[in-house]
Amino acid sequence: MEPQAKNERQIPKTIFLESLQCMKEILSLGEFKIGDKQSESFRYYKKVVMDCVYGSLNNIYTNLENEGIIEKCKCNNKLRNGWANCPNCSGCGYVNTKSIPDRVRKF
To answer: How far is 33 from 81, CA to CA, in rounded Å?
Structure first.
């Protein structure tokens, strides 16, 4: 895989970063409601939220990959590991394909 164009917006990266931000907000609300981050209740809540978010992202990426819109990033990051310092994918493990239609590329 060749490096992505500098100005190209990465669909999987955008989806990933937006989802992580939402997950952080949901976890903050849970902490506010439940209280102690070390409690069994909060740990269970956090697990359920993270499983839901990462499971949904995995489904989205699998479908986009099957449609030829995205492909695995050369960094080999795994989605469940969270954010990483990859300029192409930020840790989601996927990037746009070269054959992605222009109408999709410009979202």
So the answer is: 26
Report how far residue 10's alpha carbon sits from residue 32's, in angstroms, rounded to the nearest whole number: 33
Sign of CA dihedral 101, 14, 88, 54: negative
- Per the CB < 8 A criterion, the answer to whether 84 and 16 are in contact is no
d(CA 57, CA 52): 9
As given in the structure block, the two tokens for residue 23 are 């997950």
Digit-coded pLDDT (tens) for 22-78 = 999 999 999 999 988 899 999 999 999 999 999 999 999 999 999 999 999 999 898
pLDDT-based confidence at residue 80 (cuts at 50, 70, 90): confident
Return d(Cα 67, Cα 82) in angstroms, integer: 24
Please list, in sequence order, all residues whose beta carbon lies within 8 angstroms of the beta carbon of residue 80, skipping any fewer than 6 positions away.
Answer: 54
pLDDT of residue 97 exceeding 70, the answer is: yes
